[in-house]
Amino acid sequence: MQCQRSRVCRPSKSLRLLLSAALLLSPMASLRAHAQAIGKSYITQETVVAGRLQPKQILSPPAHELVPVEIAKAVGQKYLGIDLAHLTKVTVAVEPPLGTNLFYSAFFEADQPWKLDQLAPELTQHTQPGEIRGRACLLSQQPMAPSFMQLKDNLIVIGSQGMLEKLASGNSKPTDSVIASLVATEPPTDDLYVAVDLEGLRPLISLGLMQAAQQFPAKYQRFLQIPNLLESAELKLNLRAAHPSSLYIHCGSESNAGQVEGLLQDAVELAKVQMSSEMEQQLSAMRSSDDPIQQATAAYADRALGVYLNMFVPQRRGGSFVLFDTADGGNDQMAWVAVVGVLVALLLPAVQAARAAARRNVGINNLRQLVLAQLNYEAAKNSLPAHALYSDDGKPLLSWRVLLLPYMGHQELYRQFDLDEPWNSPHNKQLIPLMPEVFASPTSTLDRSLGKTNYVVPIGAGFVFDGTIKGSPLRSITDGTSNTICMLEVNDDVAPVWTQPSDLEVAPDTPLVGLGGQHAGVFLAAFCDGHVTSIAPTIDAQVFLSLLTKSGGESTRLE
User: Fold this and answer.
1) Most distant CA pair in the chain: distance in Å?
2) Measured in Å, how far apart are the chain's first and last C-alpha atoms?
3) Alpha carbon distance 42, 104 (integer Å)
4) Are 105 and 207 contained in the same domain?
5) What pLDDT does 332 receive?
6) How much is the mean pLDDT over the chain?
7) Is 265 found in the same domain as 181?
8) What is the CA radius of gyration of the chain?
9) Fewer CB within 10 A of the terminal residue: the chain, N end or C end?
10) How far apart are CA 199 and CA 467, in angstroms?
């Protein structure tokens, strides 16, 4: 029987580094002049965030009166080994992740010689000396942490290893993408310039909105379409009055801008009604008061409410919206509050989706480690562990999770267990809070001190774990190890204590109970060959059952 798997679209774009990286792009010609070995351009077709920050310009008079120059200098000397006032430009490009690999780079250019060995050990302790395309660098030993490369005596690039290899190979070709178009027309005078390709972030934004839709009241649902009508955003910040600061949101077409404008107007009216309703009792009492001041206050509230709300609505200019532009004379604090609020509204769905994707990746890695430990156990014992360690009189004492501890580097914890006592004996009960991190689901809201885990094995007749005292050798899995599920991530409400000999008893009529509550639209399943995948909880029940049996003769596969 063939199965068509219902997948949730994996995010292809990410803001994981947007809020933590220094921002903005220098001209492509500058990159060619200073780092020819890195390729012709660092604005690739996949770039979704680009930016340029000019520390020296920001820290120089007359801009620095309100800038914490003293702190900036101290931070620069401590961590970078250079006064930040000598950093002329920091340029950043961020691409979406590919699987669990991140793609980002930040070029730090100084007006004096600056070497990698000046960086603080706290920044480079996760690296080892190595090289990329023959160029010496410090290579990260952690997947998400940056590597470091010296391009010139005054130019250091920091980024993910995948991005540095891509740039060094010369494969970062110039592009006509939205980001490239925005950056090409922006003069290099701003203290800070950021360009965001919202269209490129569409998969992440859509996933975040899908999660938000589950919590939004029905009357607000239509406003969730606003982010999907936007194409890009530009932020310019300047501390000097000679240069304007602004935030523009581009819709890509006047048609989309018209839809956004209509939705914003509806939002203002809805907010006005909502706020008036909440204040009505108080305002009604003020209107009927004999005190003229009370009456005047109520009249002012009625008039001013709409005015205040409209202050937060951006001004439309053709196919774009202006949230803030000091060139038009706007320079009040209320406008800045509006800027922050809209930025949060636009980026929060993508950030939430990125966090969800990161948590899902942690869950996948946890399951992989656990299955690998099971396979190591099988190699040593010629059989996978039974679902529990049994006493001589046939009573289950401890979970298979305890039996795997020696195969995951936790021998000392394993030696502390009394294998002749049940999981909740006075002695063994003390070890429950010592649950290793690999058993902790990143999506669980349960108190970690309870020692509960979301990683269980499915138990049932004909499964890899059939609930008996005997474990299954791999040779007994005749349906194929890549077609047979051996472990699942379950919901919090069915999560057992990690040492407890309790797992997921699968009911033939309702096999999907307890699944699909940890991640939006999917649950995680690990197979006997070690691979982990996401499965939609809408999968056919019989198809799912066939994936649980080890020798049912089915040819079920998840494509």
Assistant:
1) 91
2) 12
3) 10
4) no
5) 45
6) 80
7) no
8) 29
9) C
10) 50
Query: What number of other Cβ atoms are within 10 A of residue 152's Cβ?
Result: 15
Q: Judge whether 345 lies within some domain.
A: no
Domain boundary among 197, 217, 242: 197
User: For 237-253, what is the mean pLDDT?
Assistant: 82
For 146-181, how does the pLDDT look when each residue is reduced to its tens digit (9 = 90+)?
A: 999 998 899 999 998 888 888 777 655 555 677 777
Indicate the helix (H) or strand (E) that contains 458. Answer: strand 458-459
Question: pLDDT digits over 370-412, tens only?
Answer: 999 999 999 999 999 999 999 989 999 999 999 999 999 999 9
Q: Are 534 and 433 in contact (CB under 8 A)?
A: no
| Residue that the structure tokens 């669990």 belong to | 100
Residues 252 and 152 in one domain: no
Q: Which helix (H) or strand (E) holds 168?
A: helix 161-168
Cα–Cα–Cα angle for 291, 292, 297, nearest 5°? 105
Residue 549 has pLDDT above 50, yes or no: yes
Question: Could you tell me the sign of the dihedral formed by the alpha carbons of 124, 126, 132, 136, in that order?
Answer: positive
Indicate the pTM of the whole model: 0.53
Separation of alpha carbons 481 and 460, rounded Å: 17
The DSSP string of 66-109 is: GS-HHHHHHHIIIIISS-GGGEEEEEEEEEEEETTEEEEEEEEE
Whether 217 and 147 share a structural domain: no
Q: 7 falls in which pLDDT band (50, 70, 90)?
A: very low
471, 529: one domain: yes
Does residue 1 form part of some domain? no
**Cα 35 to the center of its chain, rounded Å:** 31
- Determine the residue type at 147: S
Token output for 244: 């304007």
Q: At what angle do helices 333-381 and 202-213 cross, to 10 degrees?
A: 90
Query: Does a cis peptide bond (omega within 30 degrees of 0) precede residue 62?
Result: yes
Take residue 372 and report the two structure tokens written for it.
């690998």
pLDDT given for residue 373 in this prediction: 94
Which run of H or of E encompasses 358? helix 333-381
Same domain, 428 and 446: yes
Q: Which domain holds residue 185?
A: 9-197
State the sign of the Cα–Cα–Cα–Cα dihedral 397, 377, 515, 461.
negative
Q: How many domains does the chain have?
A: 3
Evaluate whether 131 touches 109 at the Cβ level (below 8 Å).
no
Indicate if the alpha-carbon torsion angle 156, 157, 159, 165 is positive or negative: negative
Q: Characterize the bridge pairing of strands 246-250 and 320-325.
A: antiparallel
Do 264 and 374 belong together in one domain? no
* Pair 391, 508 in one domain: yes
